[in-house]
Amino acid sequence: MIINQYYLECLSHASYLVGDETSGKAVVIDPRRDIAEYVADATKLGLQITHVLETHLHADFLSGHLELAAATGAEIVFGEAAPIEFTVTKVSDGDWIDLGHARLQVLETPGHTPESICITAYESPEATEPVCVFTGDTLFIGDVGRPDLLSSVGHTADDLAKSLYRSLHTKLMPLPDAVKVYPAHGAGSACGKNLSTDTMSTMGEQRALNYALQPMSEDEFVAIVTEGQPAAPGYFVFDAITNRKERGLLDESEPAKALSLMDLDAAVAEGAVIVDTRQAMDFAAGHLIGSLSVGLDGRFAEYTGSIVAPHASIVLVSEPGTEQEAMIRLARIGFDNVVGYLAEPMQVMAENPERVEQASRLTVEQLRAVMVNTPDVQLVDIRNPGELAVGVIDPARTLPLGSLAAHLEELDPSRPTVVYCAGGYRSSAGASLLRTHGFEDVSDLLGGYAAWEALPA
Predict the structure, then answer these.
(1) Which of 118, 132, 191, 421 is catalytic?
(2) Are 41 and 27 in contact (CB under 8 A)?
(3) Where would a tag sit more exposed on the chain, N or C end, judged by fewer CB atoms within 10 A?
(4) Residue 65: pLDDT above 70?
(5) Residue-wise burial string across 14-24, b where 16 or more C-beta atoms lie within 10 A, e elsewhere
(6) How many CA atoms lie within 13 A of 58 on its CB side?
(7) Which parts of 137-272 are beta strand (E)?
(8) Is 357 helix (H, G, I), strand (E, B) or coil?
(9) How do 273-276 and 397-398 pair as beta strands?
């Protein structure tokens, strides 16, 4: 049996190609939307992709099941409870998918979502124990899937957490210690709060080390897994709903369109948002007035999806040669309305200085002085709830980046404002969002809370 893991750092997303060398049949589990790598690897290995298996309706990315089905003729498979609006094969607890010699068995594991499934893999028809389990967002390395993402669409976090407790204890924890665990996400994902940097483990290790698998009552489990979850980016509901539907297919080969400044202005006049994907220090040195700052060098798609509406048209300002990557990364979360990118951005800004502004970034020493000399300064902490345990710069208002856009009315645009995060990446995005909404005196903190904590008293 062949198992290839594909780990996408920018979304902390893991997907899998599982193939049977004897029959040449293969499945892809929880694919990302740009599918060329799966198809190329299957061809290289002499495999035919016959099924696309989805462990659940993903909220943090737009899955590639439709793209893979169109490219390979593969059958799309979801759990029985999935509310899908196009033709798929539904599977139930105990169902088998035969690849030839290898076999996959479905475990219904509701909790993260009602339709969640896990998939155990057996090397042969005679095997009595699986070699591994693909756990989707039910069980992570060091964590379990958050149960609160569907609270806005009729499912309570407590009810889903109770289902998750039962799924873990009746379906996954009875698996032998040696069974390898392959989850759908790793550290940094907003689908949990304590994910490990490891991308695989074993059931034995998880029973010993995962806080959520330690002996506790159902009520204790519910309390611990519903507390301290990160703010869900605004695009999560959009993706969860879109993954149910027929939609347009991604063409990875379609090039991003180069735009003149006049083209950019026309797009903005029609409602487009300018997203500057350069590093925060370059954005601060000079950017087009009205731009949002989300660096391509980090969790670009996730944070763009936190401050830009899903259906908004987008114009990119990027380092030359990176525009296509930015467009693909946005497409992975279903943001398909990229009008194009500004050609020769540095030259355009040099030739149009009246269109350019700088962004204020403070060192921790400067912030300390500001807090002494400017009593009405407004501090905004955009970290997630779980990050606040290490401390907060008093008297900061805590508004996670994922929900900042929805709570701007809680801040005073007339006050000088300083935005900070953990290390200084998200704060550039948050500060730029405030500027586009009329906050005139906005800075962000270089090095974030980590730099503040390291400042001598």
Answers:
(1) 421
(2) no
(3) C
(4) yes
(5) bbbbbbbbeee
(6) 26
(7) 180-183, 201-202, 258-259
(8) strand
(9) unpaired
Is 421 in the active site?
A: yes
Is-cis flag, bond preceding 125, omega within 30? no
| Cβ pair 340, 263 in contact under 8 A | yes
Tell whether the model's pLDDT for residue 20 goes beyond 60.
yes
Output DSSP code: residue 233: P
User: How many residues in the chain?
Assistant: 457
pTM of the full structure? 0.94
Q: How far apart are CA 427 and CA 433, in angstroms?
A: 10
DSSP string, 83-152: --SS--EEE-TT-EEE-SSSEEEEEE--SSSTT-EEEEEESSTT-SS-SEEEEETTB-SSSB--S-TTGG
Residue 268 confidence (pLDDT): 97
293 touches 429 (CB < 8 A): yes
Tell me, what's the pLDDT at 299? 92
CB–CB of 346/261 below 8 Å? Answer: no
Two structure tokens written together for 28: 């892809």
For 240-268, what is the mean pLDDT?
Answer: 96
Contacts of 380 (CB under 8 A, 6+ apart): 396, 397, 399, 404, 411, 417, 418, 419, 420, 430, 434
Q: Please tell me the distance from the alpha carbon of residue 68 to that of residue 6, in angstroms, as a whole number.
A: 15
Answer yes or no: are the C-beta atoms of 430 and 405 closer than 8 Å: no
Quote the distance between the C-alpha of residue 315 and its chain's center: 21
CB 386 within 8 A of CB 193: yes
Q: What are phi and psi of 67, to 5 degrees?
A: -65, -45
User: By the 8 A CB rule, do 396 and 363 touch?
Assistant: no
Kindly state the tokens that stand for 126: 């005679």
Task: Please state the rounded mean pLDDT for residues 186-204.
Answer: 88
Beta-strand relationship, 356-357 and 287-288 = antiparallel
**What domains are defined for the chain?**
2-242 (3.60.15.10), 258-357 (3.40.250.10), 360-454 (3.40.250.10)
Q: Which residues contact 349 (CB under 8 A, 6 or more apart)?
A: 286, 287, 288, 355, 356
pLDDT band at 192 (very low <50, low <70, confident <90, very high): confident
Return the sign of the alpha-carbon dihedral for residues 402, 405, 408, 413.
positive
User: Which one-letter DSSP state was computed for residue 324?
Assistant: H
pLDDT bin (cut points 50, 70, 90) of residue 77 is very high
What's 231's DSSP letter? P
Question: How confident is the model at residue 153, as a pLDDT?
Answer: 60
